[in-house]
């Protein structure tokens, strides 16, 4: 009973004369409330769904009917009312406004939080009208206001000019076009971290503001006490940011960022919490494209592996094409000084390079995944069903070998990063809704009002103590893969703290086995602007044209067939995409009614690969797709 009075005391300052039952819960982690004291009116049960949206690129200069060669700012041309789909033009406000209306009408009450991965200003692509810093801030403010107008806590806004309270968390991050000149981001604090701390004030938890001003990164508890979203400032990892130099040197902000991330994940593990990572520029690394400085990729991949019990998954934008990437922990070599840039070819070449990577994934013995799915205790597969005959034993050996190669039955050798396509209609405007497992979360509340989360004293204490204490001189903490590489006699110690792996008794994390917070699937939405503009031309739409988002695909459909979004499911999909095509005997129309196999009677065809490429371009008709191999 005492704690209830304490709580009332805490509330008293902010909201006098209101009964406890009407207060939003965001102030206090629900775990601090005595069991059974959650009043009905206080409950905000998790819904098991969130929105990922990225790369709006709003442009106030966009004019319908202008030339796409002039950034859709001038001249005469085909630029449409809602944008010039399939071009490099930025997004008109009509598209931005209508997208927010659609979100308000269709998603507002369905989602627990919003992941918003940057590039919320136009490109600097018009020599006649260069961008200004104020324009970048103003466009970011515009989008922030839109989120606030949808998700402001009812009845709170009008009462004061204080920071608006959000009914669900919205988590932003810096894009390479949210700064000037684009790509160049200096060590913080700087004018960008300071001004965005103001613009994003309602989105950054109070106890994270200092951190944000220092480095442009922060953590938000989206399900208090259970799930955090970590907003990375990928500008410090980005190869094109010439103001910084990777993650190895202690003087670099990238080094500091990785240290901070390591400590965050360590704290979350100690609190038995899980984390979603998000950022703008994804860690692409193939023969055709490398986005991050290699030293940052190395640490990131190692961190993902060591904290594989904590991290649920990672979400990025920037590349505007829908795809995913696997980070392979066997590619971690902590002594590497590799630099070297790979030039960017076309997007299709990049996708081909991913396919090439995936074609050399360890090849699964037939039936292995069905078997893994049906077995609940995966300690040792061969013990589950010991083979009796010689051939059976050989088969078992093959399976064991395969499992060793992929890091055990959960494929823990790998981690996955997802890239959502953009809102700006480089193809069609697009957004993604991700479903996650809410088993056992009946009594937890989703987060609200990031601005007033009580700072967790134990957390900040741990934070400082940890930073001052050397963690590993102990080789037992070095991942076995790395120990092996260094050979026996001379063990070189890494020049940074290698994070501790999960305890040997820890069950696999939500990225690896389906449990609370595991991503179950996503729905990709798009708006067919070509169709809309046709309708507008025949004035079917009237004075107040609206846009609609429709489902492009879901991850559990006939093509992707993903039963969840665990790493093993992505491994299977990647392996299927990497497979060689088979020759088609006769014309087939695939289950979605797409007819791209029509013209391909003789050439080998891999329909999963074809779908992957089509989806990369959000279903927009792209020239030359037919020329892609198989
Ligand atoms: C979009 O909304 C903003 C307010 O948020 C308004 O100022 C602007 O006129 C709208 N533009 C269009 C084209 O709807
Ligand atoms: C969520 O996780 C639980 C516990 O592992 C599992 O039993 C359940 O099937 C999962 N739910 C879904 C919808 O996959
Ligand atoms: C978009 O609309 C156009 C015109 O109606 C149509 O030809 C095209 O197939 C549609 N694309 C998709 C992916 O639905």
From TrEMBL:
It is an enzyme of class 3 (hydrolase). It is a single-pass type II membrane protein. It comes from the Eukaryota. GO terms for molecular function: endopolyphosphatase activity; exopolyphosphatase activity; phosphoric diester hydrolase activity. One of its GO terms (biological process) is polyphosphate catabolic process. The keyword Transmembrane helix applies. Keywords: Glycoprotein, Hydrolase, Membrane, Signal, Signal-anchor, Transmembrane, Transmembrane helix, Vacuole. Residues 49-302 form the Calcineurin-like phosphoesterase domain. It holds the Pfam family Metallophos. GO terms for cellular component: fungal-type vacuole; vacuolar membrane. Residues 1-17 form the signal peptide. It catalyses: [phosphate](n+1) + n H2O = (n+1) phosphate + n H(+). Belongs to the endopolyphosphatase PPN1 family. This is Endopolyphosphatase. It comes from Penicillium rubens (strain ATCC 28089 / DSM 1075 / NRRL 1951 / Wisconsin 54-1255) (Penicillium chrysogenum).
